Amino acid sequence: MEKIIESDQDHSQPKVASYTSANEASTPIVLINASGHRQELDRNFRLINIVGLGVTSGNTWIALGGSIVVAIYNGGPPGVIYELIAASVAYWFIAASIAELASAMPSSGGVYHWASVTAGRHGRICGFFAGWWNFLAWILAIAATAQIIGAQTVSMYALFHPSFVTQRWQVFVTYQILIWGACLITLYANRALPTLEAIGGFLVVAGVLITIIVCAVMPHVNGQEYASNSFVWREWDNGTGYGSDGFVFCLGMLNGAFAVGTPDVISHMAEEVPRPSQNIPKAILAQFVIGFLTALFYLISIFYSISDLDAILESTYLFPLTEIYRQTTGSAGGSLGLLILSFLPCIIALIGCFLTASRVFWTLARDNATPFAKISGEVDGKHRNPFNSIILCGVICCLLGCIYVGSQTAFSAFVGSFVVLSTLSYLAAILPHLLSKRSNIKPGWFWMKGWIGTVVNAVSCGYIVVFVVIFCFPFALPVDAKTMNYTVLITGGLTVFVGLWWGVVWRRGEYRGPRFVELGREALAETVG
Fold it and tell me: pTM to 2 decimals?
């Protein structure tokens, strides 16, 4: 019989150590991680690498730029700025709640693992739904990121071809190239990925600094006036058709949530990071500080550089920043240069989304929570990654791209459900933690003591419960079939699918759910066959 111990150290591969006690002979010990599984993945992501992953895949300023036209209708430039600040404050509470769970239970399953433990005797079903909601959200994040890059690519071409008429198939072809390119890199470049993500983080920070400088300097060079302080900070403009400005403000926070609503992305690399109980929460908090500051100063700079807002709202470019940059620099070449600064980190962000989604599905599969679990739950011995899970993510995203060709409205309905699905997965972990008086887990390196943790968890849950409902309202009035917000339909339909699959695995009795293994515990009453 083998005995197993958990290790929080840097191990490049599973190892068998020697365990000796006074009562028994030397017995081989297999190192396992906090989820109770063998440590199969290489721990080759250092702190700088996962911070780069978080900053790149949670790339707030580019995400805001991609939806800025829609955001402007929710209050104009002041609305975009203040709604970002409000959404960021709310997600600071969520990020802190996630950081302490990640510190206590560093597992690649993330919310799937945490919900299974914090919910106590209801952990199996809470964890099951949390894991699937989270996986589906990250699949949609891949699709959304690839579509944004596709729109950037087509818009860059259109800059130099004024008579060019954009068609959906052009974005679709670019989308498929991006999906399979990112998938292949994730499959075959596992050792290079940490360095790539660190480079992505650098490109995000360098790109926003260069863009801010250009936006500050070029209008003066071109002899054009800057936008007024009133335009940037005070001229509220409700263009949604809703009568209540307060409701419009809350509805507009969805744009900020798309930008900052990925606090769990780093947590799914826990089994590939040395000392994850410390490094994961550090990286989560660093991601939010960098993301918020870069997004805020970026928005301020581009709004001051706008000379013709109507031209931006009426622009035919698929990627809204194209026209903004053209106005800022005064040339197509200048706009292209700034677009490249956002294009490059977006490519790395797409790879980061593949990393995240594949890790979530792999952790579900190794607990028999997915179809074809035996195949998807394997780690490829040669490539040192969940090879089959990565391929599956590519196939699903490829099919989602086909939806885009058939109906852009249907595709937008799917990707627009990302925020609701992801926040529901957070709720499934944080709410049981709060209701159990935070007593079902042992505190990790990062822990909010006493009433502070209770308040932070309560605010997180309150925000999610209220805004999940708000984010399902139509974006503007009046509403027709094309402009309807189908988030509630997509989220509800996917949840029904998860519920049906839960019935299958529950009836079969194959799903046990993840376990919590205390860090540093030496001899566990488990055997490895």
Answer: 0.91
